[in-house]
Amino acid sequence: MLWLLEFCAARAAFATMFTAWSAVLPLLRDDWQMTAWQAGMVQSGYHVGFLISLFAVGFLSDRHGARRIYLATGIAAVASGLLFALFADGFVSALLLYGLTGLCSGGSYTPGLAIVAQRMKERQGRALGYYLAAASLGYAIGLLIASAMIPLYGWRGAFVVTALCPLLGMALGWRALREVPNVVHALPDGHGNHSRLLEVVRNKPAMLSIWGYTFHAWELLGMWAWLPAFLAAAAFAGGAGGAQAASLGATLTALTYLAAVVGSVLGGSLSDRYGRTAVTLAMAVASLACSFSFGWMIGLPMVLLVVVAVFYNVTGVGDSSIHSTTLTELMDPRYLGAAYSLRSVLGFGAGAIAPWVFGLVLDWGRAGGGMPDHVVWGLAWSTLGLGGLLGPLAIWRLRRMPEAVKLANGKR
């Protein structure tokens, strides 16, 4: 258990860069004169880089071992984060450099999941829940750092300090993996990446799990990208100044991410006890209810918005660890890296589009100046719900398949 906590601490440190952009987005939209779709595009650029990274490291982990790939990519994550923090100075440079940061950040995710699954044979749902919860903790730490730095050193200071955290993650990861073997699952002669992908695609239950994750990612990553800006807009409407509103939005969002830590562990633990698909469906339906209602609440008291945002985060992230555990139980270990790679391309591909679509709707709603704020934000948030609707349908189909008895010792 101590090993898992140390490894999770490394994951949290690597994850701080994920929220660096969304934390300062309200300020940079003014300083760099960006539209909402451009602001969303920068976050989408990170997701595109991240999905390419995850696709590559999944296959590399199968071929060379998850431990080796985790450590090698950790160095790239440190360097790319510092490049973004020091040299981003406009929409184009931010898009390219934040995209590069995402491209170098996948090594602590997919190989990390494989290492946890390798080391923690019992109660995998809970163990993977802890690992994914560590990422939520890292997101919260990144936002708290940004909210503290903005009043003191502005958005550049927020970028630099959050970019230093992956260096700590690299040190913790190296320490945690000192005695962990580098396991390579051998394939028969003539089996390459193409055959690995075919094995995944032919596995219909695994593909349903992957599709469920894909639509889950659309909703979750879109929500994470725009929640700080939404809470900052609510604070600004309540009378806070620009920098004060941005700092408050980042701080309050960080609190909701801390609650999401509980959601990841809770979801994984409940799925161990009550079944993977049953808990996934419950979390997904609750999260969808938030997506379709949250934006319409912008005129309500801030306390109520934060309470709903906490529930939204808990239910939105609560099925993340279940999706990962479900895939490990449905796939042959020799093809698990390929399965994670395909899932990453589809899931983070959807998650890359969602913030951009959100921003497009936000710009469209404000273009004429005739729509009230709660309608504009309500329509923008509803795009996340529309994209997430197909996720529960895929999981419901998986639940009804005979292969679902493999999940959680027959608990589906």
What does the model show?
The structure is a single chain. By secondary structure, the protein is an all-alpha fold. The protein has one domain (2-181, 192-410): MFS general substrate transporter like domains (Growth Hormone, Chain: A), CATH 1.20.1250.20. 81% of the residues lie in helices and 0% in strands. It is built from 16 helices and no strands. It has helices at 2-15, 20-31, 36-64, 66-87, 91-103, 110-119, 124-176, 193-202, 204-237, 242-274, 276-293, 302-318, 320-330, 336-367, 373-388, 390-399. α9 packs antiparallel against α12 (302-318). The chain is globular and about 55 Å long. The mean pLDDT is 81.
Query: What structural category arises from helix and sheet content?
Result: mainly alpha
Q: Could you give a short account of the major beta sheet?
A: none
- Give the radius of gyration: 20 Å
CATH superfamily: MFS general substrate transporter like domains
Summarize the helix and strand pattern as letters.
Answer: HHHHHHHHHHHHHHHH
What's the domain count?
1
The overall pLDDT average reads 81
Which fold does the CATH topology refer to? Answer: Growth Hormone, Chain: A
Uncertain segments are none
Give the strand content. Answer: under 5%
Distance between the termini: 26 Å
Number of helices: 16
Approximate helicity band: over 70%
The backbone outline, from C-alpha atoms, is globular
CATH class: Mainly Alpha
- The CATH architecture comes to Up-down Bundle
What's the total number of strands? 0
Please sum up the structure shown.
The chain is 81% helix and 0% strand.
